[in-house]
């Protein structure tokens, strides 16, 4: 059974850096084909893909946010970490991590975490 | 404005069949990239419903089906049930933007 869970601050000040951790079980980022992605959803709005990392340590970022995002993995801890710099109130959203399946460009998100709401406000 | 366009809402009575569309362009669905569908019940995380245009993950009822043609895709739900009331999102890949893209979502109301 694959489970994922996001953790991190619920409130961030504008201009600060957000660090979110995805802790998972039932999958390993040392296994060929496996990957983890981050997706966010502002309140009442649609989903937006942010970043993903795979077992080879290949990384992909949303071009519109690439300069602000960094994704890394810690295979010994079964964790993926996403950092987003220079946070702004428009970044207020529920942030999800999800297990990525499929090949590049044809991939999809199989199992999702419960999400964590991050509010950006002073 | 989402790269993939979905109608904001659809509705149907219990037992009926409903369909919802996901319209893209030549740089995403029309370029041959797969379309995937997710169901998001109120207050919960999205759940994978259809992958690879028309494949159902284990546990998803066969009342749900997906199709794709040219630059668009569709999700059909037959035998509509009250528990199907949710927001449905399509997802694909856009090669001009180099990004995984989601539609704006369609809210299904069961009358």
Q: Most extensive chain contact?
A: A-B, 25 and 26 residues
- Say how many strands of chain B there are: 9
Low-confidence spans of chain A:
none
The run of helices and strands of chain B is EEEEEEEEE
- Can you summarize the main beta sheet of chain B? 6 strands, mixed
* C-alpha Rg of chain B (nearest Å): 13 Å
Helix proportion of chain A: under 10%
Number of helices of chain B: 0
- Summed over residues and divided by their number, the pLDDT of chain B gives a mean of 97
Backbone shape of chain B: globular
Oligomer: heterodimer
Percent helix range of chain B: under 10%
- Averaged pLDDT of chain A, please? 97
Can you write the helix and strand succession of chain A as a string?
EEEEEEEEEEE
Shape annotation of chain A? globular
Descriptive notes:
- The complex is a heterodimer of chains A (122) and B (111).
- Chain A is mostly beta strands and 122 residues long.
- Helices cover 0% and strands 52% of the residues of chain A.
- Chain B is mainly beta and 111 residues long.
- The chains are: A mainly beta (122), B mainly beta (111).
- At the A-B interface, strand 5 and strand 10 of A face strand 7 and strand 8 of B.
């Amino acid at each position: 059974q694959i489970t994922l869970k996001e953790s991190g601050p619920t409130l961030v000040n504008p201009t600060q850096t957000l660090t979110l951790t995805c802790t998972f079980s039932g999958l390993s980022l040392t296994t060929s084909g496996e990957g983890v992605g981050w997706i966010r959803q502002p309140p009442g709005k649609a989903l937006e893909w942010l970043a993903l990392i795979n077992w080879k340590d290949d990384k992909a970022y949303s071009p519109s946010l690439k300069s602000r995002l960094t994704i890394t993995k810690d295979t010994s801890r079964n964790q993926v970490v996403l950092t987003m710099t220079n946070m702004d109130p428009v970044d207020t959203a529920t942030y999800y991590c999800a297990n990525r399946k499929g090949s590049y460009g044809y991939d999809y998100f199989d199992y999702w975490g419960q999400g964590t709401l991050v509010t950006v406000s002073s | 404005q989402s790269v993939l366009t979905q109608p904001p809402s659809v509705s149907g009575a219990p037992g009926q069949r409903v369909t919802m569309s996901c319209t893209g362009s030549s740089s995403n669905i029309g370029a041959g990239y797969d379309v995937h569908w997710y169901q998001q019940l109120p207050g919960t995380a999205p759940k994978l419903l259809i992958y690879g245009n028309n494949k159902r993950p284990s546990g998803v009822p066969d009342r749900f089906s997906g199709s794709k043609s040219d630059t668009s895709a569709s999700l059909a739900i037959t035998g509509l049930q009250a528990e199907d009331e949710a927001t449905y999102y399509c997802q694909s890949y856009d090669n001009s933007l180099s990004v995984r893209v989601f539609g704006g979502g369609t809210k299904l109301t069961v009358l």
